[in-house]
Design a protein that fits this description.
Elements: H1 7-10, H2 28-31, H3 43-54, H4 58-61, H5 64-70, H6 73-100, H7 107-115, H8 125-162, H9 168-192, H10 194-224, H11 242-255, H12 261-264, H13 272-301, H14 304-309, H15 313-321, H16 328-357, E1 367-369, H17 376-392, H18 396-423, H19 436-455, H20 459-480, H21 486-499, E2 501-503
Antiparallel strand pairs: 1-2
Helix pairs in contact: 3-10, 3-13, 3-16, 5-6, 5-11, 6-11, 6-13, 6-18, 7-8, 7-18, 8-9, 8-16, 8-17, 8-18, 8-20, 9-16, 9-17, 10-13, 10-16, 11-19, 16-17, 18-19
Length: 506
């Protein structure tokens, strides 16, 4: 199959658009400009994007999981440091890939560049399956989890303040309404303007870092008073059970997920050859240092037993140390979850955009708003999918068991890097990692992907695998055999009219 064909664009009615006649009232300066994604993300904003996606609610709520499974303070800290180092190596490898393949989409763009020409059927398959899983399942579900956490921490203070008595059913309804309103606001921001998103992201990232620093400074002050009895335990109680150690490692790596975020929006990064590697070299180590020192702070104030028993470690820490200022932590979680959800949606909408340009999604999802220069249909799609996940109920377990799929694709991205070292020898590589790093990460990703299947077999693993299989079937009929529904043509037509979008000129 020729990957460059655009079946959705060639079949069916399209708006015949001259940019000077886009719509009544369109400013002449807009009409005469090139309709494409603009490079509006500088170095600071790229670092903020990485920080915003990596720091969600996890570091405030669930560090107890790594400590419980590792068994000791010393090994727990080693786990956090090791997970940060591995994430950094992976991010550096993605930085090289992002300069060799300077297109939005991260893994999707890398798979297309590395594998498409190898085989007419199997070559384009990895990129399509990646889009299938990430766009329709993983990322919308992640945003839903983040927004539901936002809703929980927003709802509780309001109810306590007004001393309201609400039935469990109405409580569930109200929490979901708050979550849906948050999704609507996030979608509106990403629909309206990249500049607005960047400004809000920078502000929220700064506030999140301040909240992390508040925890760290509180822990340092506690240690300075001589309260070192918890930290002094070192490796006492370290577990030797391989299953527990692997799951601790797995949980830690999941907390660091998001280090690929800057390569998802490569086409919107200013001076990408410089800013992609540099933002990764600044952002990922920054998050690693914050995570490591926050865990030191937690463990300096709380005993192992207290940390393991706490449903939200940061809340227990704040109540013990901050007293009347303890509400700073719920506020931090609210800010953290909202900005993380906004950034995840921003990134995955660019995946839709990249896939739509080559026919791996309905093409209208690659269209750009004629004035706002945002991938408006893709943003609307993600907002809609996230809303469906919120309405249908809790999806936390599904995310936990689908998360192993992420590392399958990370490993495949490392294979793409190795392949392109041979097939694209002449490509410009302003940044290059030692070849041993991608080989190491391929082996590690295979290990991480297999471990949950062996150590925690669950029917939901089968559901995830079946979803991938369904993607292969969809690929066979819709992409390889180019069978398309007639209603798709009308759908694209009305999307263009209703959302004022047209195909990108790039």
């Amino acid at each position: 199959m020729n990957e460059e064909k655009k079946p959705y664009n060639r079949k069916g009615p399209q708006l015949s658009v001259n940019l000077s006649e886009v719509s009544v009232g369109t400013p002449r300066s807009v009409a005469s400009s090139v309709v494409e994604l603009k490079r509006e993300i500088g170095l600071l904003s790229a670092v903020s994007l990485i920080v915003s996606v990596m720091i969600g609610s996890g570091i405030f709520i669930s560090p107890s999981s790594v400590l419980e499974k590792s068994g000791s303070v010393g090994l727990c800290l080693v786990m956090w440091g090791l997970c940060g180092a591995i994430s950094y190596l992976g991010a550096l490898s993605f930085a090289e890939l992002g300069t060799v393949v300077p297109s939005s989409g991260a893994e999707y763009a890398f798979f297309r560049a590395a594998f498409t020409d190898f085989h007419s059927f199997f070559g384009p398959l990895p990129s399509f399956v990646y889009i299938w899983v990430i766009v329709f399942l993983v990322r919308p579900a992640e945003v839903a989890i983040l927004v539901l956490t936002f809703s929980e921490y927003t709802y509780s203070p309001i109810v306590l303040y007004f001393n309201m008595e609400i039935s469990p059913f109405m409580e569930s309804v109200l929490k979901k309404l708050i979550a849906l309103l948050a999704v609507g606001l996030i979608t509106y921001i990403n629909f309206v303007s990249v500049k607005i998103y960047v400004k809000m992201q920078n502000m929220f990232s700064s506030l999140k870092i301040l909240a992390c620093l508040a925890v760290i400074i509180g822990g340092i002050c506690h240690l300075a008073k001589g309260n070192i009895q918890n930290i002094n335990k070192g490796f006492e109680g370290t577990r030797s059970n391989i299953k527990d150690l692997v799951l601790a490692f797995y949980t830690g790596l999941w907390s660091f997920d998001g280090w690929t975020s800057v390569t998802v929006v490569s086409e919107e990064i200013k001076s990408p050859n410089r800013n992609i590697p540099l933002s990764i070299s600044l952002g990922v180590p920054l998050v690693t240092i914050l995570y490591f020192t926050m865990n030191v702070a937690y463990m300096s104030v709380l005993s192992i037993e207290e940390m393991v028993a706490a449903p939200a470690v940061a809340m227990a820490f704040a109540e013990r140390l901050f007293g009347p200022f303890a509400p700073i932590i719920p506020v931090a979680v609210i800010l953290s979850t909202f900005s993380c959800a906004m950034s995840v949606q921003f990134g995955v909408s660019r995946l839709c955009f990249a896939a739509g340009r080559v026919g791996h999604m309905v093409e209208c999802f690659s269209y750009i708003h004629i004035r706002r220069m945002t991938p408006a249909p893709a943003v609307i799609l993600q907002g809609t999918l996230t809303s469906v996940f919120i309405i249908t109920g809790s999806i936390i377990r599904l995310i936990e068991f689908v998360s192993f799929i992420i590392w399958i694709f990370y490993g495949l991205a490392m294979v793409a890097l190795i392949v392109m070292r041979s097939t694209k020898k002449e490509a410009s590589r302003p940044f290059k990692v030692p070849i041993i790093i991608p080989y190491f990460l391929v082996a590690l990703s295979a290990f991480i992907a297999v471990v949950p299947l062996v150590l925690q077999p669950d029917p939901l693993f089968l559901a995830a695998i079946l979803f991938i299989a369904l993607g292969v079937v969809a690929y066979h009929f819709l992409i390889f055999q180019e069978k398309h529904f007639k209603c798709t043509r009308c759908f694209c037509y009305y999307v263009q009219i209703l959302l004022e979008v047209i195909p990108s000129e790039r």
